[in-house]
Hints:
The chain is of the alpha+beta class.
Amino acid sequence: MYKEHAKFKAPSPAAVLWRYMDLSKLIAMIHGGCLFFARADRLGDPWEGATSPVNVTFRQVLDLQTGAGYQQLGDLHKSTLRHTYISCWHESPHESAAMWKLYLSSAEGIAIQTTFERLRESFSKTDRDIFIGKVDYYDPMLEMWPEGNILRQYLYKRKSFEHEREVRAIFQDQPELGFERAEPAAEYGLNITVDIDTLIERVYLAPTSPAWIARVTQAVLDKFGLNRTTVQSSLSADPAF
Length: 241
């Protein structure tokens, strides 16, 4: 279930969150009653779980001064990559043209729209501890990134990703052997049971979606008893002159 984290910045309960995906992923989500969490090292950003060069230099200085072994923090953070699982959401009161283009591989796309309150409540069916927080964006060449928490490391990204306005749901395996020696629980990610009816507030259709996608999407929602009506993207509206 959802748990608050002392180091996480949570959105307001009414904050609007979006997850853009292909129709096939929506069907899999509803059919399985699960939300997919990708393994951190499979997200495609080589800086996942990393820190800034400024931090590394600072660790080196501390080690020279104290001999405390601060540089071992880097090894610890690296070892958590295969045991950290993340579900990424976009925070915005409006749908995003950039997100449609970034996350859809075809015209057959949809977006789930929810709120932070709905997202956190949807995890009532899982025994895992799920933490949710807003991502902070830094310039790694100029700024230190806060350290001291192996989960918080996954809520820092480079400023070049600021347009994503990302909110992340995160959990970690806690292997008894230690992160560095234990095998990961999954190769690419894990499905976590959620309350789909709580999670999904609206389903939006991509601006380029053909008419048959609307029919199929609505049929899927109806088949699984979700009392939702699909919403056509406002970006597909004809311009006025």
